[in-house]
Design a protein that fits this description.
about 220 residues, alpha/beta, Rossmann fold, Arc Repressor Mutant, subunit A, 2 domains, 10 helices, elongated
């Protein structure tokens, strides 16, 4: 299968270098070049590439914003960030925006091709520095969430688990032998303490923190 690639980078020399090398690969076809994030979004819509090699810092629109827009409209397109930045300020937002890969521009050409093929096979490809930052970020988030759970009272924790099981306030009241008014108060307290917007977010929170084993109810 031929992989159709769009290159988005504001430096002409970088784009030329990538094109020169990647065009020598039998399984890869370069179908377009963009000099900024806005062009990348437009060309992605017109050309529908399989994968985009996306720079981070570009004029008019950066790579992170472009990635969000592209993944929102064309989620099937894979995006690999190819940049010079390896700090948390850039890595985490890029991954959260939907990038499947994060590599630095000093990557060896053959390793770049391997990363492209692995991403197309459904894998995530992160530079070791990016992997370390992502794991640290996830660990930090988990610690913060566990601390928030510890702030819940025993009854509030019970209510959270019942929310995650898909029960209504009336059903929770019957299960816990309390009034609906009391349930509403506990639900409000749970949402406030965990800084969540609604019951669906609360259910997802409970599942993510393994308070329940089942899938949360749909909104």
């Amino acid at each position: 299968m031929t992989i159709k690639i769009l290159i988005a980078d504001d430096h002409h020399v970088v784009r030329r270098g990538l094109v020169f090398f990647l065009r020598t690969q039998e399984s890869i076809e370069i179908i377009g070049e963009a000099s900024n994030g806005k062009e990348a979004v437009e060309l992605a819509r017109k050309l529908n590439p399989d994968l985009i090699l996306m720079d981070l810092i570009m004029p008019e629109m950066d790579g992170i914003q472009a990635t969000k827009l592209i993944k929102g409209a064309q989620p099937e397109i894979k995006i690999m960030m190819l940049t010079s930045f390896s700090d948390q300020e850039h890595v985490i937002p890029a991954i959260e925006a939907g990038a499947s890969g994060y590599q630095l521009k000093d990557i060896q050409p053959d390793e770049l091709v391997k990363s492209i093929k692995r991403i197309m096979a459904g894998e995530n490809q992160l530079h070791p520095k990016a992997t370390s930052l992502v794991l640290k970020h996830l660990s930090s988030n988990n610690r913060q969430e566990r601390k928030a759970i510890d702030d819940l009272t025993k009854r509030e924790l019970e209510v959270l688990k019942e929310i995650a099981s898909g029960k209504s306030n009336k059903e929770i009241a019957a299960t816990l032998y309390i009034t609906e008014k009391t349930v509403k108060t506990h639900v409000s307290n749970v949402l406030a303490k965990l800084e969540l917007a609604d019951r669906t977010q609360a259910a997802l929170y409970a599942v993510r923190n393994r308070l329940v084993e089942q899938e949360p109810p749909s909104a």
